[in-house]
Amino acid sequence: MGQDGAHEFGRTGGGGEHARRKSGWAHDESEHDACAIIANVKKDGLASHGNVKRTLEALVRMGHRTGEIEGEGDGAGLQTDIPRERWAKRLEATGLRGKLSARSQFVVAHLMIPHEHRREAEEIKRRALELFEEAVLEVLVSEPARVRPDALGPLARATEPEFWQVAALPRTARGLEDRRIFHLTLRLERELPVHVASLSPNSVIYKVRGDAETLRRYFPELSHPDFKSAITLGHGRYSTNTDSRAERAQMFSTLGHNGEINSIDRLGREARSLGIQLPARASDSQVLDRVVESYMFDYDLSLMNALEIAFPPVWSEIARFPQELQQLYRYWRRAFGALAQGPAAIIAR
Question: In the chain, pLDDT over 70 holds for what percent of residues?
């Protein structure tokens, strides 16, 4: 399936070290990695626990595709539908109506407070909740996720972030556009030392430094029968030469990526030139995820159009298209350059 890293770095696209310093983007050229991915989608659209269970089992079976450091998995994650039945019970436990979780504008955020900032966690949460309120979101539930730290290996425990969950509803009858929710993600990252794993009215992400079995054991709610999803995307990370952190594990908020990026440096610099805010200490796949999200939410492109721009067809393939399509793809190639091309498998929602 290729590698979630790059074989060609640095000067591809020009600019060199000076351009990297000027743009505020730099990448460690010694980093290389590869991964396992799975997409499990029910054709009937009906959420089930079996969908989640089978995806976890498949990730476990693909353990040979994922990396490890001193016997610990390098990272694993799932993207699922919001488990609305579970959230209904959590709302009822706080005295709220469980049916609120069925609303289309019910928003769930999964935020990770890095290990080095856990002493400041309460202040970070206080300010984050203020940002939710300023975004016209009424917070219904705010609490740490139920986790089992003993499922982690020694390395993961030493850098374990706090996994924090927030559920909210818009205060306006019209709800919030996806763009405004995306901009709340950007503001949280910009103003606070947090990693926003997911913030969406549709999906949630669970991830951990470890393998798929660690993921299942660390988040016990994933094994609960009322945790249901119709779409489950899974990723097992292989990157033994990169900084292994739970925050860098995939899935990311929109996609999972297993492939090659021809120039990680250029991808980052081109993203900066478009005014795209990149996450702190981002991996190449994380940068790609943010680029695709920005195309969708800031430029009103569909997911498929965004991916077509990020991964355009190669010239020999374009030459076989109808003339009008050739002109379109040549325009995109010249306007944006080969930002992320290379052999790749992408799962995205």
Answer: 82
